[in-house]
Specification:
Radius of gyration: 25 Å
Strand content: 35-45%
Largest sheet: 5 strands, mixed
Low-confidence stretches: none
Helix content: 10-25%
Strand order of the largest sheet: 5-6-7-8-9
Order of helices and strands: EEEEHEEEEE
Number of strands: 9
Number of domains: 2
Bound molecules: zinc ion
Length: 135
Amino acid sequence: MQSTTLSAGDSIEARCTKCRKNNPHTIITMSETGPTKVQCSICSRQHKYRPPSPIKKPAASSRAAQIKEAERQEWATLHETMNRAKASAYYMTESYKIKTLINHPVFGLGLVQRVIGAQKMEVLFEDGKKTMRCK
Ligand SMILES: [Zn+2]
């Protein structure tokens, strides 16, 4: 029977405050409850053991997240009015008018919101706004 108990010298995933990410660490000292001191294998810093942190989501307060949230709400509102049966298949060789509902093979239903100069349009998809090619 193999023991899963950790001991000094073992490698463990831990959070490094210097690298600001989860790195493999070598355990230097142990207590009954787990590692107490570890050494980062990336920057060689010795510090108190911190469990690996979950992957951080982008801060909700960031501007990009706010835009995304606004687009998501816009989508939620518009989505109720969308009639999938009336969506036109998306082809980059076609030209589209504003408010045309398109069906993209990857992004799904989208609403043409803006035609940007030559051969480009802005389409709101469930994932947010994307610039698509058009005729
Ligand atoms: Zn480090």
